[in-house]
Amino acid sequence: ATRTGQPPREAETHCPYCALQCGMVLRDTDDGRIEVQPRQFPTNRGGLCQKGWTAADLLDHPDRLTTPLVRDPSGTLRPATWAAALDRIVDGLRTVQRAHGRDAVAVFGGGGLTNEKAYALGKFARVALRTRHIDYNGRWCMSSAAAAGLRAFGVDRGLPFPLTDLGRTDTLLLVGTNPAETMPPLMRHVTDQRARGGRLIVVDPRLTATARQADLHLQPLPGTDLAVANALLHIALTEGLIDREYVAARTEGFDAVRRTVAEYWPAEVERLSGVPVADLEATARALGTAGSAMILTARGAEQHAKGVDTVSAYVNLALALGLPGRPHSGYGCLTGQGNGQGGREHGQKSDQLPGYRKIDDPAARAHVAGVWGVDPAELPGPGVPAYQLLDSLGTPDGPRALLVFGSNPVVSAPRAARVESRLRGLDLLVVADFLRSETAELADVVLPVAQWAEEDGTMTNLEGRVLRRRALRRPPPGVRTDLTVLADLAARLDAPDPVPTGPAAGPAVDRFPTDPRVVFAELRRASAGGVADYAGVSWERIESADGVFWPCPDPDGPDSPRLFADTFPTPTGRARFHAVRHRPAAEPVCADYPLHFTTGRVLAQYQSGTQTRRVDALRRAAPHGFVELHPDLATRLGVGDGDEVRVASRRGELRAPARLSPTIRPDTVFAPFHWPGAARANSVTNDALDPVSGMPEFKICAVRVERA
Ligand code: SF4
């Protein structure tokens, strides 16, 4: 018998971590453990990385929160009943809104929340709290690629083709992505591609595990990827590699791009980026002469104050070569977080309503308000992107109360010390999580919520494929699901008066269902007709296949694994070029801060590390932060391997052991961002924002390094 006395149970589900959403089977074993087995699914094809194998370790972890915590007058977080915790939250929200208005309350979500939760959170903010202030940590993930995709193609779907197409493309260009470390099972598709004789080219300032497998590695100075892309297009033009027929028939705006890239002489770009002309030429030729070719970007190209323009430069290159819509070809973005894609489609973003609708579009407001049973005029307008929101907390014009679901901005936000001090200055901070994250440690109220294997729902992976997350067991006593928490709060906020800003119509229990299947049915109606149309996606349909690709407007019609074969969802049906120019990093190096600093991930840790730092096997594999330095730089600084070093920027510093490696440029240092405290990489990073996407410049700032 199992722990429950019932026959062994199992659930076919997906890994809780990254956007690859590897398929796995969870099994209750006789000795009370939960066993993880990979399963055949198109994205992972029977593979898992170390994080996936150990994902169930947190379900019964001793650090698991199983009771609400409320801060007492002495400043200590103490166990409390749910009623006391919810009352404290609602009292606090009412007090703040009465004194400072509806927008004095804000909500911060996460890219790991299911579609149902992301949808319910957006609705909760706008209907129950009636605040314009909601955004989420996905803003720091793929928002630059999302904005560039929208303006070029009229749609933002990470990969507009199934991942399996990677294995059949002739030339694969990866820009600022290291899937061998961040999404190892994805490399099975790359292995296929190489085995078929395909070429792999990687653009990365570090010789990463992925770059080591490449035929060609371009190692530009951080922040010069845009110039590299413009130089590649320059070469493609001068060597006659452009698909003129495609450009004429399927695109608009090429002339301005042609004139702009004419300025990007390869020799000039070599001086700027350090990438040799010969490598630029080889790359342009490999892309331009291939039968099929793909260009994929990720955070390395996107997390810049010019991230949208950088992605546009690679989209321009793909369009000029006639790639989008061609078999096994195109441009795509490798989304990072588990539901980074779905999380941005259902209303967690400050400027969007479900279905990827613009919140300032009257028709969109009318449609969604109709589904929610409220007057469109009562729906708040757009808020501000994530960092601006957090940086405004507690300021005279900013929110004074914040509810955080599934995020840990104390570790993950840029210029993190400043964000931490903003959070400390709030009248009310509420965190819903299943572990005491660094952000939860600052909260007035912490709510213990269910984990991935304890609730049903859907996720949308990096391909735009909607998947079923299935529960293996119910949450432990004392733990509630996020949907239940939102319903509980909405019901209390709806209680007879005294908040004049409460929702306008309908009993709260109907407006905030706790059954994810009911929420998904409502999400389908809300998304119908939008860019991300889920109207034809049902749980039954997902289960009858390996997921369903959006857009899928008709329950009886096909889904959309491949986009752009005949047309683009723009007003003219053509894709749009955008002429873009290189700009220096927001913070150039100088005599005081002479080195470039960049951040990233390691294989055994994930995001802010709240979860993975608590898994024994992962902690053993990657126990602490480090600073990667080139040996030549280390010699100049008098630093040996393992010496504690101090990395200082204008905003703060981190301390961690040095790790010497010839794989990084001598003018650049790297640190992973998974650790809090002294090793917190985001103490150093720059909060300069992309003007279009609101993406912070995580990937480059100026630092000095010395032995600590
Ligand atoms: Fe999980 Fe991503 Fe690893 Fe797959 S690659 S097992 S989804 S963390």
From TrEMBL:
SMART domains tied to this protein: Molybdop_Fe4S4
Keywords, in A-Z order: 4Fe-4S, Iron, Iron-sulfur, Metal-binding
Pfam families registered for this protein in UniProt: Molybdop_Fe4S4, Molybdopterin, Molydop_binding
Domain 4Fe-4S Mo/W bis-MGD-type: 8-63
PANTHER family: NADH-QUINONE OXIDOREDUCTASE SUBUNIT G, RESPIRATORY NITRATE REDUCTASE
Protein name: Molybdopterin oxidoreductase family protein
Annotated source species: Micromonospora humida
Native organism taxonomy: Bacteria, Bacillati, Actinomycetota, Actinomycetes, Micromonosporales
